[in-house]
Specification:
The structure holds 2 protein chains of 2 kinds. By secondary structure, chain A is of the alpha+beta class. Chain A is 28% helix and 19% strand. Chain A has 2 helices and 6 strands. Chain B has a single domain, classed as NAD(P)-binding Rossmann-like Domain (Rossmann fold), CATH 3.40.50.720. In chain B, α1 packs across α6. Classes of the chains: A alpha+beta, B alpha/beta.
Chain lengths: 145, 272
């Protein structure tokens, strides 16, 4: 029976993974250096994506969690490589990519338009900002204070 | 004679249920509501202070039976998304004519949408904005946009909040979302519109085609958000061809084949 609340335990969740998320991950990996591909493992009722990004000078190891209530609830991305404390970095080196909150109006995440690879692209952009902030002291994107 | 499937009998859902069940065309109601009536609910709810501690669903049934003894009221005291109760919910939906969603969280709204699309049943949704400055009423019919299409469109095009962006400049600190409770009057206004739209749908559940998908009704003037109070905005939102929530996607038909295909894909991506 269909349930949108459990990514790996419901028909709706499995169909979303098989028809949307996995194909975009496979397209992302295609032709990419193996060191930078997305690796996928089960974690509880959700999935864990492990990958590396190199937006400019440095390579960063990251993981993005798709929790059981994904895609209604946005993915959560944290950087495993140690970072300096900086703006837009939450507890556990989790990146601030979407507004906090559960309402449609309060979140920038849109489950009807975004996939997990969008979250990875957002993390790439965050890290590019981090490197500029590291050099200049200014966070270059204005959307959050 | 119609069978109404409603989720939520909170401060917004209960007045909708009350208004709808005054209509004798509704002979049966299935209500999904797991919550207990708590002291902080009293200010905005139809139920009395002495009812605190009882399940809202039971209180709703008593309320309806006192006014419509002939009404068949069935309760599901569970969360709509609880996997253990999906079988019972699907069975009820086979027999339902229309749905009313009065859930207050996105997960339940998306789930309600998935259930109604699967069963091909029309439904309505009411949403009161933070602070009671206005609210949305949506109508979903077969072949039209899904909740994902509508939510995505509104998220991009309509501003309903004047809160500044959260300040994340302090490392390691998240900020809780700030929601300002709506007054009972605001909730009642949006609930009445929600009930009216549902009654329109009730007249012709399979053929009803409103000339708008979503009605936004302002209740207060808010600088930078709403220029005037009591102003309606109608949105005719098309089904989005690229909506990840409702677009048709080829996947294995049977659950067994689906599990096999998913296991294979996860194994393939575990060690790339």
């Amino acid at each position: 029976m269909e349930s949108s609340s459990n990514l790996l335990d419901s028909e709706a969740g499995k169909r979303r993974l098989l028809s949307i998320e996995i194909p975009v991950i496979e397209r992302y990996n295609e032709g990419r250096d193996p060191a930078y591909r997305i690796r996928l493992t089960r974690q509880g009722g959700g999935l864990l994506l492990r990958y590396a990004l190199k937006p400019a000078h440095n390579r960063y190891d990251l993981e993005t969690r798709l929790i059981a209530s994904y895609p209604t609830v946005p993915p959560e991305t944290r950087v495993l490589t140690p970072l300096r404390h900086c703006p837009h970095l939450l507890e556990g080196q989790t990146l601030c990519l979407w507004r906090q909150g559960s309402t449609r109006a309060s979140s920038r995440w849109d489950p009807s338009r975004y996939t997990c690879v969008f979250a990875i692209q957002a993390a790439w952009r965050w890290l590019a900002c981090y490197e500029i902030w590291h050099e200049t002291g200014d966070w270059p994107l204005p959307e959050a204070k | 004679m119609a069978h109404l499937f409603q989720v939520g009998a909170g401060s917004g859902g209960m007045p909708v249920l009350d208004l709808l069940c005054r209509d004798e065309r509704i002979h049966r109601v299935t209500l999904v509501e797991p919550d207990i009536y708590k002291p902080h609910n009293v200010e905005r709810h139809l139920f009395a202070l002495r009812d605190v501690g009882q399940p809202k669903a039971e209180l709703a049934r008593q309320w309806l039976r006192q006014r419509r003894p002939d009404l068949d009221v069935q309760l599901l005291l569970c969360d709509l998304t609880d996997p253990l109760h999906q079988g019972a919910i699907h069975e009820v939906l086979e027999e339902a004519d229309l749905g009313v969603c009065a859930a207050d969280n996105e997960e339940a709204k998306y789930h309600f949408d998935a259930l109604m699309r699967r069963h091909g049943k029309p439904w309505t949704l009411g949403e009161v904005l933070s602070g009671g400055i206005g609210g949305f009423v949506h109508c979903f019919v077969r072949g039209g946009p899904c909740y994902g299409c509508v939510a995505s469109y509104l998220q991009r095009t309509v501003r309903v909040d004047d809160a500044p962006p959260p300040d994340y400049s302090a490392p390691g600190h998240t900020q809780a979302e700030l929601t300002i409770p709506a007054s009972k009057a605001s909730i009642a206004a949006i609930a009445s519109l929600h009930a009216l739209m549902t009654l329109e749908l009730l007249a012709d559940p399979t053929g009803y085609r409103p000339d708008f998908t979503t009605l936004l009704w302002t209740l207060r003037r808010v600088e930078g958000v709403f220029d005037e109070a009591f102003h309606p905005y109608r949105f005719r939102i098309a089904r989005a061809g690229d909506c990840l929530t409702c677009m048709a996607r080829p996947t294995p038909a049977s659950l067994e084949d689906l599990d096999v295909a998913l296991d294979e894909a996860l194994a393939r991506l575990a060690d790339v």
